[in-house]
Design a protein that fits this description.
This protein is of the alpha/beta class and 328 residues long. It has 12 helices and 9 strands. Strands 5-6-7-3-8-9 form a 6-stranded mixed β-sheet, sandwiched between helices. It starts with 18 loop residues before the first strand and ends in a 19-residue tail after the last helix. 28% of the residues are buried.
């Protein structure tokens, strides 16, 4: 690592582990060009590079503060989930950890080479899936012989050929889910120091998600660190032991998965209340056989007793009961 950084005081159990990613008060800012004069010309572009502040003011550049003062330490063997509502800065933070975005303030240190896997990862649509497997493996630094050895495992893991020989067809014929599964399978074929997964598990079916979760656990056993961005709370619970909750670019909570997920679900209202169980019906008391045969019970069940209890009901066989004359 470029600099030795003390462990996270919020996680004393990590004091003896090796940090792989350290984020120290990280700010990430996007700049969006406004409607000032000269927008789109080569001269305006050169002015923005040479005289950034003056040019931004003249062109009406708008700053979007995507990540604000985020600090955390990730360790080898951890699987960390990143959660938050849309626009909270989760994908932006992953891109900064991968070195694809510059930070405005603060620092990010990594031990090893981070690899970012996203649904929109670039692949050659005009080439077959087979060719893309080799290109993806070579791009990750795998020797050609190693790609050949793991080729069939990559194809089987992706499930591309479950419904036909799709691996020999161009990528443009794939559905979005098939392409995402193949991207993840290629990335998972290598043991990464730091693997960054951005919504890649949300596109596959349940069987593929189970295989992916098992593969993530294998990567952790090989002393790798995995970051997973997902809006699927179940995938986060099944895969990650620790969760970072980002909200409006700020780190709102960092801790064990279940503790953070409960707070997040209460914040978003995703947690549905448990259905109330119906109250058990009280069983009617069974009559006592001995009491039913007693003289008191017989007397209570006699026609005279019933008539006394309900005066409006005429007693059966009572001669004094008036009869209603029938019409002639």
């Amino acid at each position: 690592m470029a600099e030795q950084t003390p462990g996270n005081p919020g996680h004393p159990e990590h004091s003896e582990q090796v940090p792989t990613v350290v984020a120290d008060s990280v700010d990430i800012v996007y700049r969006v060009n406004g409607t000032g004069a000269g927008r789109g010309t080569a001269t305006a572009a050169l002015n923005r590079i040479l005289r950034r502040k003056q040019a931004e003011k003249a062109a009406g550049v708008r700053k979007v503060h995507a990540v604000r003062k985020v600090s955390f330490v990730a360790y080898k063997g951890e699987a960390i989930g990143l959660i938050g509502t849309n626009g909270s800065g989760k994908s932006t933070l992953l891109k900064a950890v991968a070195g694809l975005l510059p930070v405005e303030n603060g620092h990010i240190y990594t031990d090893g080479q981070p690899s970012l896997l996203g649904v929109n990862a670039a692949m050659m649509n005009d080439l077959t899936g087979e060719r893309n497997v080799f290109l993806g493996g070579l791009a990750m630094g795998m020797p050609r012989e190693q790609v050949k050895e793991r080729y069939q495992d990559i194809v089987d893991f992706s499930g591309i050929n479950e419904k036909g020989d799709f691996i020999t067809l161009p990528m443009r014929t794939y559905s979005s889910g098939m392409a995402a599964r193949l991207r993840f399978s290629i990335a998972a074929a290598k043991d990464h120091d730091v693997l960054l997964i951005d919504e890649a598990l949300a596109t596959g079916d349940r069987s593929f998600q189970k295989r992916s979760e098992a593969r993530i656990r294998e990567l952790r056993q090989h002393a790798g660190t995995v970051f997973l961005v997902s809006h699927n709370n179940k995938s986060i619970r099944d895969t990650c032991e620790r969760v970072l909750w980002l909200e409006r670019g700020e780190l709102r909570m960092d801790g064990p998965t279940e503790e953070v997920m409960k707070e997040y679900e209460a914040f978003t209202g995703d947690k549905k209340p448990a259905p109330k169980k119906p109250a058990p019906k009280s069983a009617a008391p069974k009559p006592d056989a001995k009491a039913a045969g007693s003289p008191e019970a017989k007397a209570a069940g006699s026609p005279e007793a019933k008539a006394a209890a309900n005066p409006e009901t005429p007693a059966a066989g009572n001669p004094e009961t008036p009869k209603v004359p029938l019409p002639s």
